[in-house]
Amino acid sequence: MKIAVETIGCRTNRADSASLGHQLAALGHQLVEDRDEAEVVLVNGCTVTARAQRDSRAACYRARRGRLDPWVVLFGCVVRAGHGEGSWRDARTLAVASPEELWPLLETLSPEPSGPSRPQAALALGGPRRGDSRYFLKIQEGCDRGCTYCVVPQARGKPRSVPLEQVLVEARRAAQAGFTDVVLTGTHGALWGRDLVPASSFAALLTGLAAEALPLRYRLGSLEPLEDDQDEVLAALAPGGSLCPHLHIPLQSGSQTILEAMGRPWGRQRFSALCARARHLCGPGLTFGTDLIVGFPGETEALFQETLDFLEASELVFIHTFAFSAREGTKAAAFPGRVPAREVARRSALVRQLAARKLSALQHSLVGQVLEVSVDAEGPPAAGLSDNFLRCRLEAPGPLQRARWVQARVTGVQNGDLVAQVLLGGERG
Predict the structure, then answer these.
(1) Cis, bond preceding 198 (omega within 30 deg of 0)
(2) How much is the pLDDT for 9?
(3) How far apart are CA 121 and CA 376, in angstroms?
(4) Rounded to whole angstroms, how far apart are CA atoms 275 and 282?
């Protein structure tokens, strides 16, 4: 069949969709980008926020308008959390929750149901999306930490790790396919290995990947609070290793009062100590990012100001801001003190302004320095993402190859991106 896959949500969803596309192609299906050419449209939905759920619904609506009147199959978090039902479904929109249910459904829809056997149900490992220069390698999924605002435990289930040997097989596959930039994704990646027999640790996973000595550089996806192996993980980010010097750790609020109401497993002091320890072990090239929820119930103006003050004093540069979204089945959905939408929008704008100013200051401080950049657009103009997560417009004497690393000297900042001159002989990978 001709199948289109549309993805809503996070890197983990992107890894799931990439893995699904790889398996569909292996079974002889034809993957298409244009839903007008599709007989089946698979929508990998998200339910982490109300907006993500609306986007999932809108994707189903759009898919129904395909020229071939396609079947629309909704799957993923939005279904697993029980949010896939509703009046927006019709006779040609089908909801499934898991790969175990998806494969037999596709066989039912296929005009040739006697085709190749479907793959065994397993934890999807990820892969490249069509046209992507980075390879998304899923190492883990699930979380049982129970933050009061979060629906992920319902949507993803308990923590489940991909065994090390399977991760290594997938890393080798990425290298053989010509990728050099690999993103390690997971719902709570720092929990990797705790559920394996024998138990292992996230630091052991990083050690295993480094020991393979593949021509790859690894980016860490969002990491929830690091566990007992914190120093070993941070040491792997030091210069000269295979890990890119960027650390993204969700903070969610800069107010200790709000953090406690959120049920977050650590506070401001521990977060600051982690950043300071990471800087000490990894040096000046390391950059920090975080996620922040604005408008959590009970967030007064004074508590919001605590967040602004904390962000201002921190080393956080990449700040992804989300408006609080009450999700059915979470404790916070029933909390009093809801912040009006207009006020949430105002506060979100203030956080974005602060983040933009801090990012601009970092960018200008890098003028004259040499960065490692992964090329993701050959151009002209060529562009890429530095190892410490900065967008770069690349100036080069000749054509550049996608999915390759280059050394480039920063010459300026333009329209929110770095401008960098590729050094002669600086291409590798």
Answers:
(1) yes
(2) 81
(3) 32
(4) 10
Query: Which residue is associated with the tokens 């990947």?
Result: 209
Question: Whose structure tokens read 């890119």?
Answer: 244
Using 70 as the pLDDT threshold, list the residues of the chain that sit under it. 82-91, 99, 112-131, 225, 227, 425-429
Please tell me the CATH code under which domain 2-109 is placed: 3.40.50.12160
- Nearest CA to 212 out of 186, 241, 247 is that of 241
Q: Taking the C-alpha atoms of 95, 101, 107 and 110 in order, what is their torsion angle to the nearest 10 degrees?
A: 10
Q: What is the pLDDT of residue 116?
A: 47
Q: Which two tokens stand for residue 255?
A: 């107010």
Residue 51 half-sphere exposure toward CB, CA atoms < 13 A: 5
The topology (CATH level 3) of 370-428 is OB fold (Dihydrolipoamide Acetyltransferase, E2P) (2.40.50)
DSSP string covering 240-295, please? Answer: TSSB-SEEE---B-S-HHHHHHHT-SS-HHHHHHHHHHHHHHH-TT-EEEEEEEES
